[in-house]
Sequence to fold (258 residues):
Amino acid sequence: MLADLAYRLYERRLSAGLRGGALPRHVGVILDGNRRYARQRGLETVVEGHRQGARKIHELLDWCDELGIRTVTLWLLSTDNLRRDAGEVGELVDIIAGTVEQLAHSPVNSDRGLRVTAVGALDALPDRLQRVLKEANELTADRHDFRLQVAVGYGGRQEITDALRSLLEERHMRGDTLADVLDDLTVESIGEHLYITGLPDPDLIIRTSGAIRMSGFLLWQSAHSELHFCDPYWPDFRKTDFLRALRDFQSRHRRYGR
Fold:
């Protein structure tokens, strides 16, 4: 009881300390540590860690909504993850599909205007997951107040490779020569062909589980992002951990390379 009270008081103090300061418009999160959480807690399988991690997503969206953070990108499945044990990948795909369906159909999320979109090499995903992601996008397409992107089958290098391929194919169809393409090649022209377009780049990227690396998450878009690494495994990530990340963000002087 005393510990719970102390936690709530600390949470309120952190929240109060954020008032009046700049908050990120777009937060990206690498949801890391589900498997290690399951092993450390002695859960029956690592899949149970993924299930508990999926439940944490709903809490994170509540916290963002409370604070007025309106764009969130979550890395749920990487291209490397797809090479894991087939049984684990299959169950993880089912968990992701179920979570996306819940998010898209939730009356709470409908009221808050949550739009759900997916980014990644979506054609490489199992048919059921492709269908769920497509249906979530269509169901929430007329919502514009709160944007959730789920990165599924995503890899930063693959995104840039696919963007260049798309750009070259487009210019080839127009009959342009390689010299024409090279003359016109700019950061902006490549950016127009990325998976993620039309949204602000992430101001803050959080990675849980103590790992201090990006692993290719939003490789292009994170050029000027502030990075925050924290120790809790994703299922253990608390509101105080989130508020600390925001406090850390507010303490930074963002120079954008200048």
Residues 23-155+201-250 form a domain with the Undecaprenyl pyrophosphate synthetase fold (CATH 3.40.1180.10). The chain has one domain: 23-155+201-250. The longest helix spans residues 46-67.
